[in-house]
């Protein structure tokens, strides 16, 4: 699978005492933040345990770091993920350049399999753990601090509050977004410890969410905590034509030259109101979604991969006109250009102060233009029946920088070297 269009990584010489990364038993850390649906299905299919991964989701131990695009976007989903929004503390462009170069240097080393400092005394045989580290920039980075105001991507802005949102400012936005994905949960923590230690004094965490994929039961796509299969429909990441139309910033997009090869990232922290949802009869839940809870099939189909036949059901007799899948993806020629890639994860943050379970989704979507794609979908979903049972609480819009081309390149080089 072409998935990342990445060049082979230049791997540092093998040192068995230091090389490799994270081999551990299970147990997942809960998320520090919750919140937001934005497409027909919110998570890409994968299993929560390595042994249970579907054959088409098997990952190489080491994901290439160098390439035209960053890894961790069209890379098949790893089992665990961590998302962090940061504020930059650097005082000038020289400090920002130093920050990006430090992040690049450590990310390159960690992805290649070298252990983080805090793990180097571990006795287990290390592996790279299918690690990816993906860096994005927020609209607030393009203020007067670094002289970047004239170089902001065209569609980058602070994520607005949509009508069904209840956004909490401490859980929103940031100068940078960091996505760390791996096959074991401790990898996320060790990498985050390493990167924050290496960038001390240059970054301040704003919000954080740790998350994971649920297994498929009994087969097919996995389920979220509201019980329905997710990730059934997504653009074809193996098609260059589809990716250039829906995902990557290309010359016809009219973006700054430095941004070519990047992509817009939308993060949404969404809480599920589980207690309220569980009181609904399954038949009602299915009409809200437009799919069968057991099989994942559309209400007019037999299998989860069956395409809904909306033209044969113009009045919504079988699949309600206000069902989630029908609003999110009407499957018309006019709405086809609003599709985007969803790469979301589930979270479990225990109980809140009132004794209710804090479960939900860390929604992650990648696209060429968040206004044309994510925001358009959100407008169609406004006040949908499902909105009564989910609440977006945080997240943000970010622009994922173009890939690091080779061993001499670094995150954001084309942006900062042109200023």
From TrEMBL:
GO cellular component: cell envelope; cytosol
Main enzyme class: oxidoreductase
Spans annotated as Disordered: 293-321
Name of one Pfam family that matches: Dyp_perox_N
Dyp-type peroxidase N-terminal domain span: 70-212
Reactions accelerated catalytically: heme b + 2 H(+) = protoporphyrin IX + Fe(2+)
Cofactor: binding comment: Binds 1 heme b (iron(II)-protoporphyrin IX) group non-covalently per subunit.
InterPro entries, alphabetized: Dimeric_a/b-barrel (IPR011008), Dyp_perox_C (IPR048328), Dyp_perox_N (IPR048327), Dyp_peroxidase (IPR006314), EfeB/EfeN (IPR006313), TAT_signal (IPR006311)
Kinase found in the keyword field: no
Family the UniProt entry places it in: Belongs to the DyP-type peroxidase family.
Protein name, UniProt field: Deferrochelatase
Gene: efeB
